[in-house]
Amino acid sequence: MSSIKICTKKALFDTAPDFYGLFFEDINRSGDGGLYPEMLRNRAFEDSILPKRCEPLKGTYGFVTPEGWRDQFNNGEGLERWLEGIEKTPVPAWYAHGVSMELNVEDRLNANRLAALGLTFEPGGSVTNIGFRGLSLVQGQSYDLYLFAKGRVKLSVNLESADCHVYARESLDIDAPEYTRFDLSLCPDQTDPDARFTLRSDSGGTLMIGFISLMPRDTYKGHGMRKDLMEMLKNTHSRFLRFPGGCIVEGFTKETAIRFPHMIGPVWERPSHNLMWHYRTTNGLGYHEYLQICEDLDLEPMYVVNCGLTCQGRKPEFFEGEELEQWIREAFDAIDYAIAPARSRWGRLRAQAGHPEPFKLTYLEIGNENDREVYFSRYEKFYHAIHQRYPQLKLISNTHTEKLGLPTQIVDEHLYSTADTFVTAAKKYCDYHRNGPEIFIGEYAVTSGLDIGNLKSALAETMYLMDAEKNQDISGSQPTRPCSRTWIILHGIPT
Fold it and tell me: What are the CB-based long-range contacts (under 8 Å, 24+) for 443-447?
């Protein structure tokens, strides 16, 4: 019988201590309802609102951007295949029984909110939120609720089963002419992975809700992230985190690109926006939260900034002139929020959010999967502006800009292709020029051909990674040079 002998006493080459890391992108609802454990879907009541400047297609089935890119919408529920088993409702995730329910786009909580939920209860009426395919409740655990509301109504606030068996109940009497914050805690007496959240009124009344949130009290180090998933990430022994994307950094229109100012401050004041991946986020998992995740898991932060382009694969729009300069200023502001002293403008906002001491910020990537001349000119502009002001940051390019004579420290290489392409690329880094820039393999997967998700694709990806592991010297001699990543996908894990 054949055998393989593995000797580990003598290393054949130097290894980078942070060779592997994590890449997080809000895809497949891995943000709200995933790592960020919000339990109520559509907590800002904005999911059914079309992205700005987009036109509807076939009613609420889809939309088209000003440049002509099309996507499914389904009244804010997302892809058509996500609708299986979900009852239709005019306000996604919210179901009214004996209640008149409508969106109010005039009487909103603040200028950044797009709508509020107006409710008129008949006696015995109720409104229910089904969460992200159900609320996963654990017996004896506390769940904290807050809402900004006004009106006059006596409510029973319930956590209950799909057939209305009550696990936890609290009373809430609202008599407020203006938006007022109300807080309470619910502790279920049973475990149920498919529970519901319900507001019920025995006497009837009116209510306007501007924003609502339900989250478990027990989070990782008390910083608001889902405890079990953070433990899973910790146990990967990763050394850096690339965030917040990914294509969502670019967006499919100017309005849907991720912007730093929208990702800080009280979550009910953060504007929401439609992500690239077919749903809207409230940005509760924002810039401050990503930096806190890095600190809590001892990860080096790798922040990806938009460089003035929307996604080039989805009929792009380009920021020019003053709009482009604003993106550079926002990159400065994000950096200052992370590392400036608490007495500075952005450091003061960080301190107000509970972190007076600066965070770490190690890497900054200029764009995501961008190329061609529209990228090269923007990359050069961003590189010089950021490097001059923050020379300590390690800057990452999306492509081999050094071949154009541009300054290039690290190149982010993405490979999405067939299994055969991965096999062919399995000696790529053996032949890489040792005087070139460092390599960061930011994303990779077999995504086309006949071998998606089978043993051949797994072996092909492994061969590609083995080549990277054998050639860690191209990530430089310093210990903080990532050359690859592990992408943890959180799809399908219940809230």
Answer: 443/23, 443/414, 443/415, 443/416, 443/485, 443/487, 444/414, 444/415, 444/416, 445/415, 445/416, 445/487, 446/417, 446/418, 446/419, 446/422, 447/416, 447/417
Let me know if residue 174 belongs to a domain.
yes
Residue 193: C-alpha distances to residues 11, 64, 152, 157, 483 (Å): 47, 37, 33, 19, 39
- Cα torsion 471, 423, 484, 252 to 10°: value is 140
pLDDT tens for residues 284-338?
999 999 999 999 999 999 999 999 999 999 999 999 999 999 999 999 999 999 9
Looking at the structure, tell me whether residues 234 and 195 fall in a common domain: no
Overall number of domains in the chain: 2
Q: Which domain holds residue 266?
A: 22-27+219-475
pTM of the predicted model, to two decimals?
A: 0.93
CATH number for the domain that contains residue 232: 3.20.20.80
Residues 193, 340: one domain? no
